Amino acid sequence: AQKITQTQPGMFVQEKEAVTLDCTYDTSDPSYGLFWYKQPSSGEMIFLIYQGSYDQQNATEGRYSLNFQKARKSANLVISASQLGDSAMYFCAMRLYSSASKIIFGSGTRLSIRP
Amino acid sequence: DAMVIQNPRYQVTQFGKPVTLSCSQTLNHNVMYWYQQKSSQAPKLLFHYYDKDFNNEADTPDNFQSRRPNTSFCFLDIRSPGLGDAAMYLCATSRVGITEAFFGQGTRLTVV
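ok -> C-alpha cells follow
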C-alpha cells in the first residue's frame, strides 16, 4: 500500500521556537520523492522542500529542513525560528516515479504560532 | 505571472447539471494532476496524466471524467454534480527531473 501518515492534526508553537512536523510513509517503490507543502488560509499550495529517495543528504531550504530517515520511512519537516507567518496547514506528500509520477498527500498538520 | 491557471476561480452549479473546470499551464510539463480538496482535508488525487496516458484512481467516482486535448490544457468534467462534490478542485503540473509540483489557485465549486 502507498500511504502518507501525519499524526499531528494540530500544533501550537511559540514564536521563534523550532518546530518539527511528523510524516511517515509507506511504499514498496524503490524510487520516490517526498515533499512538504504549506497551505495558508488563502488556499494556495506553497512548495517548501523536496527529498529524493536516493538523496544522501537531508534537504534544506532556508529555515526549512527535512529530516529523512529512510530505514524508518520518515520525512519530518523542521522549521527553525518560527514566525507568525508560518501559521498554516502543512502537508507531506509523496511522488511515486514507478506509478507514472503519481503524488499523494497526507492528512496535514495545522500549525499555529503564538506571539 | 501565473504558470498554472485554473478557470473559473469560483463556480456555482446546479445539482445534476454537468460542469467543466479547466486548467492550463505555460510550463510545458508532461504530467498534470487533478485533486479534490474538501474543507480542512488533504488534497485527494482524482486522476493524472503522464503525457497522454490517463491514470485514474481506483476510488474516483465515474461521475468524474477528464480530458487533455494537448500538453497545455486539462479539463475536469463532473457529469452530474451532487452536493457532496462541493469542494476546492486543484490542478497541478510537474515533469520528471524537477523536484516541485506547481499548483494552480484552485476552483471552488458550489453545488446548489
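Chain B touches chain A at residues 31, 33, 35, 40-45, 48, 50, 53, 55, 88, 90, 92, 94, 96, 99-103, 105-106 (CB under 8 Å).
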